[in-house]
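Record pair follows.
FIRST:
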Amino acid sequence: MTTLSVIVPCYNIEAYVSDTVRSLVNNAREDFEFIFVEDCSRDRTSEALTALTAKLPHSTLLRHEQNRGLASARNTGIDRARGRYLTFLDGDDWLAPGHLAGLVEAIERLGVDFVRTDHVEVTGTDRVLKRAPEGRRDEVLDPRTGILPVAESTMVDYPYAWAGIYDTRLLEKGLLRFPDGLRTAEDRPWIWQLHRRAASYAVTPLHGVRYRRGVATSLTQVGDVRQLDFFRAFDQVMSELAHDPEAVRLRPKAIRTYAVVIAHQLRSRRRFERPVERELRRMAREALRAFPAEDLEQALVGLDDARRTILRRVSS
C-alpha cells in the first residue's frame, strides 16, 4: 500500500532539480511514491530528471507534450497518484530530511482532512522561518475558522499547496484538484475551497520545506500577460463564494484579499510590458468597480494609505 504520493511539477528548473531530487532521496520510504511532471521545459530539465530519478525509489516521470502550467501539471500528478495522502513540492524547492515522515505522522495522529505547516523561505544564503497564520497548533480545527477575521492574515492568505498534506478522501468531495489553465494564483481558489468545504484540519509546527525565492524562471519574476490570470483566479473565488451559506459574512475577506493582490500588482507595474500594464489597469478598474462601494470600503479598513490610495485612484 502506498501511504504518500509526492507530486513535483517541473518547468525550466535544470539548475535546481538535483537539490530537489536529493532531498527526496533523503525522505524516501518504501510506502512513499514520487511523481514528477515535466511540463515541456525549454532547458535540459527533462534530461536531468531522467538521470536523477533513476536514483529515487518508487519514482515516476510524466511528460507534457506542451507547456500547460503549474495547475495542470499538479492535476496530472494527482490523476496518477495512488497514495492515501498527497503532498506537493515545486521543482525548484527542497525538503529537510525526515519532513515527509513528519507529515504522515501528523495527519495520522490528528485524523483530519488536511494538515498545514510552516516553511523556510530561502533567498540566496538568507533563510527566514515563515509561520502559518494560525496560533493553535496540533489541534483539530474547523477549516472555516481559518478564513476570518477580515483585516488579519489568515489561513486563506497562506495558500501554498506544498506547505501541507492532504487526505485523498477530499478528491471525492471535488477538492484538491487545481483550476486547469490558470498560469498564476491557481492556489487561491484551491485554498478557499479547502477551507469552505473540508470537515477538519490542523496546523503543525513542521518547517521542512525550503521555498526558494528569486528564481529567474519563476512566474512571479516574469512581467508578461500570464500574470493577469490572478483576475480569473479571484473571480472564481468570488463566484464560488456566492453560493456559500455564509457568503455575506465571508465575502468581505475575499474582496479584501483580491484588492490587496490588485494593489501589489499595480505597485509592481513597471516590471510589465507596456501593453500588459495597460491591460492590468483596465482589468483592475473593472474588478474593483464590480464591488458595491460600501463592501469595498469595508474590506479596505486598516489597509495602509499607499494601497488605499492606489486602489481608489484606479477605481475612480
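SECOND:
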Amino acid sequence: MSTTKKFAAVAVGLGLVTLSACGSSDSGSDTGESKSKNITLVSHDSWAVSKGVLAAFEKQSGYQVKVLPNGDAGQAVNKAILTKDNPQGDVFFGVDNTLLSRALDNDLFQSYEAKGADSIKPEYLADKDEHRVTPIDTGDICVNYDKAYFSEHKLTPPASFDDLIKPEYKNLLVTENASTSSPGLGFLLGTAAKYGDGGWQGYWKKLKANGVKVVDGWEQAYNDEFSGSAGGKKAKADRPLVVSYASSPPAEVIYGDPKPATAPTGVATGTCFRQVEYAGLLSNARNAEGGKALIDFLLTKTFQEDMPLNMFVYPVVEGAQVPEEFTEYGPQAEDPETMDPAKIADNRDDWVKSWTSLVLK
C-alpha cells in the first residue's frame, strides 16, 4: 500500500530485488489465437509474486502473464483512467480504499464477481452491488518507532495520535506528503477519522508546531529519514518516528543482514489506518476471459499465502495463513481507524487541499 510502496519496497530499500513476472510476448502486439493466451496485469511498482506460484498458474491455466508497473498507486490509477478506452492491459491491481472512488467514478472497471469471492472477509468488501472490484489484500498504515532511540533517550515511545503532539516528541516524526503518497494520504485520513471533520485541521496545526517533517514519498521517509530502518542507519537519519506500515517491523527482521533476533522497530498501534487494495477487470480489456481467470487466481489460498513475504500485506480470504514473523513482529492493529470509501470520495480532494495549505505553506 505506496508513493504507493508496500514492503516489497522495503526489500528494495534493503538492497534486494523485487520480482516482476513477465510473459513471453506483449499482448498489445499479439494477433489471432496468440492474443487470447496472454494476460497483462497493470499495477503499481510494488507488485510481487513468487516465480513458482505464478508459473503454476500459467501452467494450469494456459495463460502467460505480463506485469506492467506504472509508478505509485496514484500515478497508476490516473494513467489507467486516461487510457481506459484503449487500456494497457486486462486487469488492474493496486487501487486502494483511499483512491477507489476515483476509479469507480471514471468507469475504470467492468463488473465481474470472482470465483472465491464468498471466502473474502466481509469487512473488506466494497461495491457489493456491481462487483467492479475484488479485495485482494489489506494492511495498516501506522507510525513506526526506532526502539534503540527511545531506549537510549529513556523515553516511552508514542502510542497514539494524541501522543505525537506532546512536547517530548517534538521534531521526531517524518511523514509523507498526503497529495503525492498513499501512506501520507492514509495518515491524513486516519486523523480525519479520529478527530472528525471539525477537529483534524486543529490536530495538524499542533503536529506542524511540534516539528513534523514532510517528504514526498515512502521510500524517502522510511529509507532516508527514519533512523530505525536499515537504510536510515546507513544514511545516518535522525527521525525516530515515521509513517509506514504495521508490517515493516517483520520486514526489518526477515531482510536484516545480519538478521536481528528481534525487530529493531515497533508500531504505535493507536495511530493506524486500515488500507485495502483491490483488483478489477479493466473496461475494454482485450482478454476479458483471461483477466477473470487471473482475478480468480488472486483469491486462491496459494496466492493469498504467498503475498505476505512478497508484498508485506495481509490476506483478505478466510483461512489464509500468515508467516510466523508477521504474528510475532507485525500483527494487525486491533482497532484501526477506518472510513467508508463514500466519505473518502466526498471529502478527499478538499481535505488534501486544506492539508496542503495548513502543513506545506
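COMMENT: Strands lie at 38-43, 64-69, 91-96, 109-110, 134-146, 173-176, 213-215, 241-245, 265-282, 314-315.
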